[in-house]
Amino acid sequence: xxxxxxxxxxxxxxxxxxRLSCTASGRTFSYYAMGWFRQAPGKEREFVGAIDxxxxxxxxxxxxxxxxxxxRDNAKNTVYLQMNSLKPEDTAVYYCAAxxxxxxxxxxxxxxxxxxxxxxxxxxxxxx
Length: 128
Prior knowledge:
about 50% strand, single chain
């Protein structure tokens, strides 16, 4: 069992930056690839990005590529989402999720059905 807790959300102006954190309970954090998803009001939850168990591989949605960076510190059981050049359309509840490492790596990381554990979400609001 893995419990995930996100933090770091808030209100930021257009063009600003935020760093979200997601801390996991348990001693097997390094067994999991981690993903970030977001859900804007009235929209489906969408993939933002993911990182493999080692931190050596990442994958991003086109909408955030070049602006967002995912990293992880397995010693701290924490994954980060650094968000730069934020836009109003980035406003959403952001969720972190964990999926057990498998042979496919991050190939299916954009499919939320592949994730086993989810955090409660943290609100990010970007004002124009």
